[in-house]
TrEMBL record:
<dbReference type="GO" id="GO:0009086">
    <property type="term" value="P:methionine biosynthetic process"/>
</dbReference>
<dbReference type="GO" id="GO:0009088">
    <property type="term" value="P:threonine biosynthetic process"/>
</dbReference>
<feature type="binding site">
    <location>
        <begin position="27"/>
        <end position="34"/>
    </location>
    <ligand>
        <name>NADP(+)</name>
    </ligand>
</feature>
<dbReference type="InterPro" id="IPR036291">
    <property type="entry name" value="NAD(P)-bd_dom_sf"/>
</dbReference>
<keyword id="KW-0791">Threonine biosynthesis</keyword>
<protein>
    <recommendedName>
        <fullName>Homoserine dehydrogenase</fullName>
        <ecNumber>1.1.1.3</ecNumber>
    </recommendedName>
</protein>
<dbReference type="InterPro" id="IPR019811">
    <property type="entry name" value="HDH_CS"/>
</dbReference>
<dbReference type="Pfam" id="PF00742">
    <property type="entry name" value="Homoserine_dh"/>
</dbReference>
<keyword id="KW-0521">NADP</keyword>
<keyword id="KW-0560">Oxidoreductase</keyword>
<dbReference type="Pfam" id="PF03447">
    <property type="entry name" value="NAD_binding_3"/>
</dbReference>
<comment type="similarity">
    <text>Belongs to the homoserine dehydrogenase family.</text>
</comment>
<feature type="domain" description="Aspartate/homoserine dehydrogenase NAD-binding">
    <location>
        <begin position="28"/>
        <end position="147"/>
    </location>
</feature>
<feature type="domain" description="Homoserine dehydrogenase catalytic">
    <location>
        <begin position="155"/>
        <end position="333"/>
    </location>
</feature>
<comment type="pathway">
    <text>Amino-acid biosynthesis; L-threonine biosynthesis; L-threonine from L-aspartate: step 3/5.</text>
</comment>
<feature type="binding site">
    <location>
        <position position="208"/>
    </location>
    <ligand>
        <name>L-homoserine</name>
    </ligand>
</feature>
<dbReference type="InterPro" id="IPR016204">
    <property type="entry name" value="HDH"/>
</dbReference>
């Protein structure tokens, strides 16, 4: 059985305004939604003490009402129409955890238009439609909170907005997709190739049947877009991000990176430069002794470099029902504290200049300046110096040259670590290198990140 939403919410009108319960309507009762309900119920007293008032889930929109009733019982009004939650007068804040970018946009904009705060864990929605959503929220003076959309259990949005509020952020870099980190960990620890590691991730539930968003880097780019907006006060620029996944990564490069003292991680990087912001997701080499290289399995980590605090690092679970619920409820506590105060006192949706016309530009790929790893197949081991000389001729600084450990049936492999060089210059050098007679097969290149202060 489930209650009629209109009848069941009516008594809430009679609560005193000053101490009135924050009434939550939720769209979606899947993995995240059910976790949110459980944690709210289990920790009700602690949450109320921290928020300064009770937070109560009063209404849920679900496709399967019978299943939803089995989760929330008869204490919550149920509806099959998400718009009823988004517009109901007895709902103060709408939690959107259904996912997607089409209907979810309409529900969120409807909630805002009706003066409701919004909490969401939907990174795709915000990365694609966030500029429109945040503009609407500013106009109505309501909060849009999304801690659960970025790094799940890691409170990185709060850290950027509040803990590091005094700082000028120089760069943010993170392992922000648990599926790809699990796959890369398996490739390194067990010597698996990409396909085998992906199959294991799917068997264990870390990867979806269609894992494209994860393994192509799109999920990480959605999250990086939000991190950059908060770090630098820039608009959401997902369409301008450079995105490269791990599908083409070979097990041999994972092994060669280890040989050189590095580990490969799918890293999202947002770095402020004089001419704009680097906004990129790709597999990179990280020094094996670095803390970021120790982040294994499905865990996430984000590192921030700022002028006053220096280097700070945040670590935690990157997926999970109650882990995401923790972030969703933290946002609800913020809403409970700020609801009713002047709109100017609300936690800002993004950075202070997110709607400015002179916002920072995103640097094109050719202008990104990093060190690089090259793996060059050659016909003979005595051709190693010819490879280094070719790169030097093309103005690419060479820090280290080595031969990869021999593998049965494979030609010799020359490994190169370069100094800092623009991507455009490196691309030209690799093109010239590829045309040389010594080179036996396509050259593999990956960026190298030191993640130093």
């Amino acid at each position: 059985m489930y209650r009629d939403p209109v009848e069941s919410l009516e008594p809430l009108h009679h609560r005193q305004a000053a101490i009135r319960t924050l009434r939550v309507g939720m769209i979606g009762i899947g993995t995240v939604g059910s976790g949110t309900f459980r944690v709210l119920a289990r920790n009700r007293a602690d949450i109320a003490a921290r928020a300064g008032r009770s937070i109560e889930l009063v209404m849920v929109a679900a496709r399967n009402l019978e299943r939803a009733a089995g989760i929330v019982g008869d204490s919550v009004a149920l509806t099959a129409d998400p718009m009823q939650v988004a517009t109901h007068p007895d709902v103060d804040v709408v939690v959107e955890v259904a996912g997607g970018t089409g209907p979810a946009r309409d529900w969120v904009l409807a909630a805002i238009a009706h003066g409701k705060h919004v909490v969401t864990a939907n990174k795709a929605l915000l990365a694609v439609h966030g500029t429109e959503i945040f503009a609407a929220a500013r106009e109505k003076g309501v909060i849009v909170a999304y801690e659960g959309a970025v790094a799940v259990s890691i409170p990185i949005i709060k850290a950027l907005r509040e803990g590091l509020a005094a700082n000028r952020i120089e760069w943010v870099a993170g392992i922000i997709n648990g599926t790809t980190n699990f796959i890369l960990s398996k490739m390194r620890d067990e010597g698996l190739d990409f396909a085998a590691a992906l199959a294991q991730a799917q068997a264990l539930g870390y990867a979806e049947a269609d894992p494209s968003f994860d393994i192509e880097g799109i999920d990480a780019a959605h999250k990086l877009t939000l991190l950059a907006a908060n770090a630098f006060g820039m608009p959401l620029r997902f369409a301008d991000a450079q995105v490269e996944g791990i599908t083409a990564l070979q097990g041999m490069d994972v092994a060669c990176a280890e040989q050189l003292g590095y580990r490969i991680k799918l890293l999202g990087v947002a770095r402020r430069q004089a001419a704009g912001v680097e906004l990129r997701v790709q597999p990179v080499l990280v020094p094996a002794a670095h803390l970021m290289a120790q982040v294994n399995g499905s865990m996430n980590a984000v590192m921030v470099k700022s002028d006053a605090a220096g280097l700070t690092m945040y670590y935690g679970a990157g997926a999970g029902s109650e882990q995401t619920a923790s972030a969703v409820i933290a946002d609800l506590v913020d809403v409970a504290r700020l609801d009713g105060v002047h709109a100017a006192q609300h936690v800002p949706h993004l950075g202070v200049h997110a709607h400015a016309t002179n916002a920072l530009a995103v640097l094109p790929r050719a202008a990104v300046h990093t060190s690089h790893y090259l793996r060059v197949p050659v016909h003979a081991v005595n051709q190693i110096q010819a490879i280094a000389a070719s790169l030097a001729e093309q103005k690419v600084p060479v820090r280290q040259v080595a031969l990869a450990a021999e593998r049965p049936g494979m030609s010799p492999q020359v490994l190169v670590l370069t100094g800092q060089v623009e991507q455009g210059t490196l691309d030209l050098a690799v093109h010239a290198l590829q045309a040389r007679s010594e080179v036996a097969a396509p050259v593999t290149t990956l960026r190298v990140e030191s993640l130093e202060g």
